[in-house]
Each structure stands twice: as C-alpha cells, then as structure tokens.
Request: fold
Amino acid sequence: MPRSGALGLLGLSAQDEHVYRSVLRHSGGTLEQLADELGCTTDRADARLQPLLDAELVALDGAVVTARPPQEVLGEVADLHLRRLLQEGEALEALRSALPSFAAEHRSARKTAEATVDVFAVQGGDVAELIRTLTRESVGDLCWLRPDQWRLPVTDEIDEWVRSAIASGRRSRAIYPARVLEEAPDLVRARAEAGEHVRILAVVPCRLSILGTQSALMPDRWDGITGRRLVVQEHSLVGVLRAYFDSLWDKAMAVPGFDGGWEEGDRVDERRLLLDQLASGAKDEQIARALGLSLRTVRRRVADLLAELGVESRFHAGVEAVRRGWI
Reply:
C-alpha cells in the first residue's frame, strides 16, 4: 500500500494512520473496542494494528491497546530523521563541492588513456634493420633529410635497402646539403641513378626519415646527435613532419650534373644556391661552409655571377635575378 499522510516518513500508509488515530482516541482500551471502532473483526483489527506495533507507536499488553505519547515517540522520530537529513545534507554538499575535482580527475584519466602519443625512443641498435622494419610496415613515399648520412657506417646498407624499395615501386625523395656535391657526389649519383628524386638545399637542418604515412625516425635532439632516436608513429605528428619536409622540398633544387660539369639547365640551380645565400646576407666564409666549397671558389663564382648579371653589387644581383625569374 502506498505511503502517504503524516506517518509516511515511518513507512506507514494512510490506512495505518487511520488506525493510529483510533488508538489515540481510545488508548488503554481493548482490542475488541478497537475492532468496533474500525468496524471489523478482532482478528482483522489485530492485523491492522501490526504496522503500528512494529513502528513502536503503540503497545499491546494482552488485549489492552495503548498508544505511546505522540510527543515523545513522534518527536524522537522527527528529531532522528532531522539529524539524518542534516547529515545527508552535509554529505550532499560535500559531494557537490567535490564534483569539479572528481571531473578533473576523470578528464585526466581519460586523457592518459585516450590521448597517448605513439612515440618511443630507441638507443643504439641496428638502425638499418629498424628502417627496413618500419618501411615494410608502411605504405607511401620514403622521404629523407640527409645532412651527413654519407659519413655513417650504415650508409651503404641503407642505400641498398632504398634501392630495393624503389625497385619494388616505392617513391623515394631525399634532400641533401650543397656540400654533398663536393664531399660525396658518388652517393648522390648512385641514389639518383636508382630512381630516387634528389634535391639540394644550402643547409639541411636535421636528420629525418619519413617512412610512408605511418612512421618517422629522427634524433631525440633537433640540434645534435646523442645516439638516441625517436620513432614517431602518431598519425598527426607524422603528417606534420611530412608537411615540414614538403616545405623544404619546395625550396630545394634539382641536383646538378654528376660529372663535375654544369649543364646549361643546371646552372640556374647553381645560381640559386649562391643567390639564396647572398639574399640571406651571408658572407663569403659562411657561403663556403654552407655549400662545401673553398673560399676561393666561392669568391670566383660570386664574381662570375655578378658579371653574368651585369651588376656591381650583391644587392643589385638579387634585383636582377628576380627580374630574370631566376629566384
């Protein structure tokens, strides 16, 4: 039976309250008198009295029904529930106050679980085998920033793997610093002859291998070599590295002829290398280091460039080069 009325707090129904009020009016009377008041049998009156006995609102001594003083029993109940409500209110307020911190903890846990970046470091090991493994597990272009790889002991092994990847249909693009044309022209020639697309920049900032769309390999320090490498397999980070490589690729130039001479079509590339350095305000000594040339060679080539452009200053060389569409 649904709970309602003043005694609903005790789990009693409106019918129970009706019986209770009858007991209050005839407290100290007999069960038979209560049955008459309720208009039912004695057994039925006894059954209807049971919830009030359980709640300790009334007492049954033999056949005598007595109501405990309402001020006492109901006052105690009211005070008890009021204390409980106050305690629950304090607990609810504490819970409400703690909700922001609980939510922060939850976000922190979700961030750890859901936003783990797939990057790990490797120390030493077989670099060539690592590159082979990452390449086999990927699809798409192989892209390389190679500032000094021709000096590494694993260069030949990696180059052989790249040649086999190109033969299998993979596209490979590599950017070298200009000094490679002085220090290791055979390496560039071999890769180009194998089908690799090669371009030259005055300076290549860092070693970087982008192995398809899934992986990239780079030093753990951008400005130095520590022996530790980062394997990046987080899709967005690989995409950022690819975009960075492509921006350098757009600025880089095709490799000049490999026979030590310069074909006519390649001379513009030589000019661009020099003009890029001159436009940056580099001195002859800096240009020599960047392009891997002797200081004497740089000065001769700058003089030849000024003469070819028909100008007397480096500033006017830049203006004239822009007018001719060289840069």
